[in-house]
């Protein structure tokens, strides 16, 4: 199935300084982005708190940022603030392209299973999800391009994508990461290959590195099973009057919650009214007290 991601926008960055311009701003190493490699990354405050996450790939020699549609204007303005004398041009091309997810085996388009592997497809690009290859593919095509139906794909529902994303414990921008508050490593960015610790300085790098090397990750975003009425996103999770977490995205009988690590024990569950919440730690997650994350897949 191919699933239109109407909640995504697209910003185009072109010019001779495009990579160097982004390199000092974002968490991932932009030198990795090529015609055959896409990446996942984030844009932070100078203090190291989350502002935006995005996918970056190359199309027609330009860098394309797949970001939250509802917040793309703010992202665009903030990127513009740092242009200074850089020879780059930024364009919002959301209305020119459409973004899709394909949950099928990536091998069906010949891309294999390596995260971020990218190739031309139709008039656009297809790439293996840079976070987890088990999330399948992301595809960007010009409006009206029929490459997906020509390849025998059928239209799927956004709910199918959401269920898979939440079941695997993946955050979705400001829906799951509090703006100007969330830390990357609380949300799995190291294991999801969304931050580079070897590229050198970037905005917010100091706090991100300190959090990693000093063992300061105290919370993690994790999937949870929901038995009972689903709590609304933002609902506090308490144990004996102490807040130990907060609900994030919910779909059906599963959701995401930001939970304190010191509350997680084998078989632990939490109760909100008539609802029982049971955390699940995906295979790709490496909790800090279990050793330093070394990547997924």
General description of the model:
With about 300 residues, this protein is of the alpha+beta class. It folds into 2 domains: about 1-155, Probable tRNA modification gtpase trme, domain 1 (Gyrase A, domain 2), CATH 3.30.1360.120; about 175-290, Elongation Factor Tu (Ef-tu), domain 3 (Beta Barrel). About 15% of the residues lie in helices and about 30% in strands. The chain has 5 helices and 16 strands. Strand 3 (about 40-45) and strand 4 form a beta hairpin. It starts with a strand and ends in an 18-residue tail after the last strand. The model is unreliable at about 290-295 (pLDDT under 50).
Would you identify the CATH architecture of the largest domain? 2-Layer Sandwich
Estimate the mean pLDDT confidence. 93
Broad CATH class of the largest domain = Alpha Beta
Shape: globular
Percent helix, as a range, is 10-25%
Secondary structure elements and their pairing?
Blueprint: E1 2-4, E2 8-14, H1 18-23, E3 39-44, E4 50-59, E5 62-68, H2 72-81, E6 89-92, E7 97-102, E8 118-121, E9 124-128, E10 137-142, H3 147-150, H4 158-167, H5 205-213, E11 219-227, E12 236-239, E13 242-251, E14 254-260, E15 270-272, E16 275-279
Antiparallel strand pairs: 1-7, 2-5, 2-6, 3-4, 4-5, 7-10, 8-9, 9-10, 11-14, 11-16, 12-13, 13-14, 15-16
């Amino acid at each position: 199935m191919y699933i239109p991601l109407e909640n995504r926008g697209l910003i185009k960055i072109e010019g001779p300084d495009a990579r160097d311009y982004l390199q000092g701003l974002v968490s991932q190493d932009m030198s990795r982005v090529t015609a055959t490699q896409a990446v996942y990354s984030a844009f932070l405050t100078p203090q190291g708190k989350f502002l935006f996450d995005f996918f970056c790939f190359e199309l027609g020699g330009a860098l394309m940022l797949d970001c939250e549609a509802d917040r793309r204007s703010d992202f665009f303005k903030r990127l513009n603030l740092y242009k200074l004398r850089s020879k780059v041009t930024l364009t919002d091309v959301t209305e020119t392209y459409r973004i899709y997810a394909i949950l099928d085996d990536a091998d069906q388009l010949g891309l294999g299973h390596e995260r971020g592997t990218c190739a031309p497809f139709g008039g656009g690009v297809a790439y293996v999800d840079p976070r987890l290859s088990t999330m399948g593919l992301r595809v960007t095509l010009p409006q009206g391009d029929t490459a997906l139906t020509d390849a025998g794909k059928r239209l799927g529902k956004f709910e199918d994508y959401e269920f898979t994303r939440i079941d695997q414990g993946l955050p979705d921008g400001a829906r799951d990461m509090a703006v100007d508050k969330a830390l990357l490593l609380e949300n799995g960015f190291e294991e999801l290959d969304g931050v580079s610790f070897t590229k050198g300085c970037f905005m917010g790098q100091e706090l991100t590195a300190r959090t990693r090397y000093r063992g300061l990750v105290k919370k993690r975003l994790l999937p949870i099973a929901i038995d009972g009425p689903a709590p609304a996103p933002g609902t506090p999770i308490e144990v004996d009057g102490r807040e130990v977490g907060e609900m994030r995205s919910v779909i059906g009988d599963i959701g995401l919650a930001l939970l304190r690590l010191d509350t997680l024990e084998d078989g632990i569950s939490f109760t909100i009214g008539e609802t029982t919440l049971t955390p699940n730690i995906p295979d790709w997650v490496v909790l800090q007290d279990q050793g330093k994350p070394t990547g997924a897949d």
